[in-house]
């Protein structure tokens, strides 16, 4: 694995110095490994909130005797959407307010994702602003709940059954990964870059699934945890490289002659390695071979389960940002 600290590098430099970084020490394929803490919790992107409300046409007032030509009749008013969340706004502390914020954020994110899939092109370009900001807010909320277990328990009780189940999976996964992180002092430079378009990655995941029989959702969850879908480009302190964080020796055995830095090659190698390690018959065994930590295994499986339940969760995770845990607190490296 490697260091988790990159998100969508939309307006940030490709290389940034962080005063302190969080490294989680796990063991990767029998070797110590530093994993980048991909901020698997709540999206904390950094752009001022902008209005996302749909513009509505206000009908012109008319006198009782006045008629309005049919061609001039106003369009029916659209239901206004809430303003987009401000990534710097304080997270509510009260469980009831947290539950309302999470419920509204998830509902709006699903709607914005549907619009993106239907009217946009997830296979090209950057995600639309509503998806980025709402996914970021979702990540921020889950991250807050992961760090506050008692508040999280009280918040779950105020959510719908389905959203409570989703929240528990995400918060548990984030908490597991945070448990592997050890904030340290010092300076470190991290290279980040934008991820490949969401549907380009989806095509690679599904091709690897067809070739090796490993569920594409598992591959997506591994890449999400490892490098936030390829946004983190720095090697780990042990020398693991590329979007799937392979050690050179493991790559020589399973890379099939490909390029360790190439997204498609790395995904095929990961599927090849997981298949050789027991997948799909025993995903827990295979994932433990990939990274010797049961907390890691559980986190990957929880995220994969959410993607399987609703593909919109894949698009949400795609827009979660990269964090570094420092001795001075969390720092986000990518996002708006």
Task: Please describe the structure with a list of short key phrases separated by commas or semicolons.
336 residues; mainly alpha; three-stranded antiparallel beta sheet; two-stranded antiparallel ribbon; 10% strand; globular; disordered N terminus; Transglycosylase_SLT_dom_1; Lysozyme-like_dom_sf; Transglycosylase SLT domain-containing protein
Task: Describe this structure as you would to a colleague.
Helix content is 45%, strand content 10%. The radius of gyration is 21 Å and the shape is globular. A hairpin with a 2-residue loop joins strand 6 and strand 7. Strands 3-2-4 form a three-stranded antiparallel beta sheet. A two-stranded antiparallel ribbon has the order 1-5. A two-stranded antiparallel ribbon has the order 6-7. With 336 residues, the protein is mostly helical. The chain is built from eleven helices and seven strands.
